[in-house]
Amino acid sequence: MKIAVAKGDGIGPEIMDAVLSIFAANKVDLEYEFVEMGKWVFDKGYSNGMTPEAQAAIERLGILFKGPMETPKGKGVKSVNVTARKTWNTYANKRTFQTLHGVDTVFSKAGIPIDITIVRENIEDTYGGIEHMLTHDVALSRRFITRPGSMQVIRYAFDMAQKKGARRITCGHKANIMKLTDGLFLECFYEVAKEYPNLNADDKIVDDLAMQLVVKPDQFDVVVMTNLQGDIISDLCAGLVGGLGFAPSANIGDHISIFEAVHGTAPDIAGKNIANPTALLLSGLGMLRHLGFRENAAVIENALLYTLEQGIHTGDFGDKSKPAVNTTEFAQAIIANFGRVPEQGMRPMMENTVENLAVCRLEKNTMMVSKETSEEKIVGIDVFIESSENHDAVARKCLQHTTDLFKLVTISNRGTQVWPKGSVFTNLVNQYTCRFESVGDQGVTQIDLLELQKRLTQDFKICSTELLNEWDGKRSYSLAQGQ
Ligand code: NAI
């Protein structure tokens, strides 16, 4: 079996060499094809941070094991790490956080064991990076949450939880505020939950989840979340078990999967051979299990846990009264401990977490459509305009342009209604959203909307628009605060 390996930037090559030396010593039967990705590939002029040969190799082999990579600042290029996850549709980011003996934390000292797996949606949300300045004062970010994308990651989370023998699976969300986006994610969660009656499925609002994780982390098992909230909560969980040096990550897709540590290139310690390779090793062990090398993974993980229990540590953690070892010595200590079993937290030989390996050639992109509507109607439009005038003046001008097809129903500023009713205490910025709805039940056409916008441009600069749709008689847009 062959996989693609990219050593990365900064401490990447040091920790990757350490991990591969452990794999070699344990006779892991894998071949490696080293590919060119990272800062120096950007510097060579490849704007996506990888050579075409690297892309071809990863698409052929289906597995990428990677070190951390730096995104050059001020060059207008996007992170190669994010590009890789999005290009290859690795829709589930799985991060496992477990108490490690020898790694002192508030919870380990209190005897509270932690074993939490966060599954974070990896493609959508604000990570599309679709952002625009509407005015000099107002920036807008688009947040995509889709039904097929949510179903993919939630199905993965339930399936993984079942194989892992989890007792509970929790959806973290903010559906009380973002009723359509997070509401859709939560709806998908409970739809999938019906297929797994043996799993105890529940949900928690993300702020409460953050507090509960800090106060009583041992109550959680598997948590599935949207991208941004999952990003923040997974770093919180890394802190619970000792920091980023112990946080592995797997980016799982149907065809290509990427295994990497959560931490970055640590430029402050790069080239010194003092970095902690544990997070990359744990990511590599997740990869070995994914590929079916369960025995190798168990032997190496038990040796790692035994080594940590012995108090052997790199400079970033552990008992400071004991001298730290360097990266190479840490790897050698693990190799010397093959066959040893930790006193606590022994990893079983046969964990039933092997994923379905489906490396295949794709001829074309997959279109994911999950739900068709029977009756569709356009019932209006939100027009985002730039104006420094008072809302009453904006309303007067808007009303001049509404014909018998439309009525002006509300004007909001930063999402809060200011017309027809509002409060003088609401501070304003120079961008309003004016909502026009159709008069009567028959709806309007796109041409009607364009005619309306054409008239509005006589008085305003239009920054953006959104259609107001009704699907099967249900509103597909939110109300303004106070509407
Ligand atoms: P960082 O994770 O590289 O470093 C934060 C702190 O943690 C530093 O003090 C560093 O020395 C320490 N640290 C991190 N990993 C360590 C390890 N294995 N052993 C010992 N100490 C460790 O985060 P930072 O400084 O924000 O980012 C540096 C670069 O890494 C940036 O260019 C960033 O874009 C990139 N990055 C790449 C990621 C990836 O490839 N997936 C993820 C995060 C950041």
From TrEMBL:
Chemical reaction(s) catalysed: D-threo-isocitrate + NADP(+) = 2-oxoglutarate + CO2 + NADPH
| Pfam families linked to this entry | Iso_dh, Isocitrate_DH_C_bact
Q: Name one GO molecular function term.
A: isocitrate dehydrogenase (NADP+) activity
Quaternary state and partners of this protein?
Homodimer.
Query: Which PANTHER family does the entry link to?
Result: DECARBOXYLATING DEHYDROGENASES-ISOCITRATE, ISOPROPYLMALATE, TARTRATE, ISOPROPYLMALATE DEHYDROGENASE-LIKE DOMAIN-CONTAINING PROTEIN
Q: Please provide the record's keywords in A-Z order.
A: Glyoxylate bypass, Magnesium, Manganese, Metal-binding, NADP, Oxidoreductase, Tricarboxylic acid cycle
Q: What is this protein called?
A: Isocitrate dehydrogenase [NADP]
- Which family does the record assign? Belongs to the isocitrate and isopropylmalate dehydrogenases family.
